[in-house]
């Protein structure tokens, strides 16, 4: 009875939450739709008003998306009391935090570990995935649908569900507290993802190319290496990049399977960054480290943004 | 889905298939073996072992020596008879801290996915409109997505800081609050802080998924409605939203699966806060911090089963085009 009233009460609370969220969003939604309807040429007062509202929404989205990272950069350039005084515009340009971070051997080591682990993980996943996704995309065989479904399901399962079994396996292989434990465990999420995305890419390649190769007597292996690989390069770069980001950001396995300071990866190093004393959290160096490990990712993502969006949506929904 | 799958699998069994087809099927088999062997080794086997460990009394001392014992479902639920003859129930299923974690996970998943869907829809509509600088907006919203979760947890942790945080500073200067709030430490605000960071980080992904759905709707649909002079908001609710529903459902379930397993953001942003601890976090703490492999595995197995239900729902509702024949 008590549980029932609790659940009912929570349902009411959720309804209120939903109503408020919708009520707050609706005016913005209305502005976007109304402005889209009128077009840029409409110079009437109503047209200009909705145009202005539209740009307000655009401005808000960009501000909210960019501000936290902007503020992290701003804070990373401040030390001493300047760091603890809130300011919205850059006031100081002090690289002391960056110097602090880059002279910590543990942090530099962590960056090296992350690069090593992510690179090997991506190469291994791509090698295993290219041939597998050729088979899944181009060859008809019994149980193909079921197999793809299983692969998709594996990429969605919670990492925690395999944690104790994997811990046992890694200890048994003698890989505990080495980068190889992470390379092995990251395969769980990079491999299904790469297979899935490469399969959707490969499906879209024209069948005529393959037919011509078959007519010439090419074996499936020749078709993959000589015919498909040159066409697949863009897809491989995109998938590899997404898998790299996944491996670079992973936290749970890295926290579980490494223990000593010089085996850690970047996310773990940043999560347990410590200062001179336990009470004092070194916010300046943390922000500097955060900016350092994020800037390369943001540059990569912006350079490849069109391809990444295509890869992401292929990995997420295709139905 | 079923029709395309059968059509695909029938082709291989049809009598009179050419030698070439058979050769290709054989090659496909050998192409698949390394990938499948790898997945069996790193995913299927550890999953089975985790489930098995949840049926034992393994702890940090016994897990490697193998001296743990089979205890059946005792980790989940067992009756304990006290000296006075009354029965006391023990195990994960009657553990208040576990149910607290379950409740936190559900609360988090439902609220974050709701907000992300509504805001993602708004952002997707903006990106779907034609205006100068659209590329820049898309680049800007990719930034939260590109930032590692741990880094965003730290960045927002700094912004939420009780003494020096910019969030408190903003709210104080606008007059919304009259004393600084310890956002990540207070039980009543910790979940709000987690939700804000998660919505900030994941709305871009949601927006991109919804945008892909929007772009699949034929343009003629809008133009017909526009010619008839129907109000754009009406068009949105009568034409766009119904056509978008399948893509939206798939995106929502996809995000829900992700939200149910959340670990890193909560572990770093609000450590040791009982008002945000989720199923993944409590299971991790049992396994790694208390060495209680048995109980931790029981909890992770329950989470696995919950997600299994949702994955089935996802594949069924989304009618994912598995063999790719529909899109041809």
TrEMBL record, chain A:
Compartments, record wording: Cell membrane
Superkingdom of the source species: Bacteria
Transmembrane segment boundaries: 12-36, 48-73, 115-137, 146-167, 179-202, 223-248, 283-304
GO annotation, cellular component aspect: plasma membrane
PANTHER family: INNER MEMBRANE ABC TRANSPORTER PERMEASE PROTEIN YCJP (PTHR32243:SF18), MALTOSE TRANSPORT SYSTEM PERMEASE-RELATED (PTHR32243)
UniProt family annotation: Belongs to the binding-protein-dependent transport system permease family.
Name assigned to this protein: Carbohydrate ABC transporter membrane protein 2
Automatic annotation (TrEMBL), chain B:
Keyword tRNA processing: no
Transmembrane segment boundaries: 27-48, 106-127, 139-160, 192-215, 235-257, 296-317
Topology of the protein relative to the lipid bilayer: Multi-pass membrane protein
Zinc keyword on record: no
Superkingdom of origin organism: Bacteria
PANTHER family registered for this protein in UniProt: BLR7065 PROTEIN, INTEGRAL MEMBRANE SUGAR TRANSPORT PROTEIN
InterPro entries, sorted: MetI-like, MetI-like_sf
The family this protein is said to belong to: Belongs to the binding-protein-dependent transport system permease family.
Stated name of the protein: Carbohydrate ABC transporter membrane protein 1
Keywords carried by this UniProt record: Cell membrane, Membrane, Transmembrane, Transmembrane helix, Transport
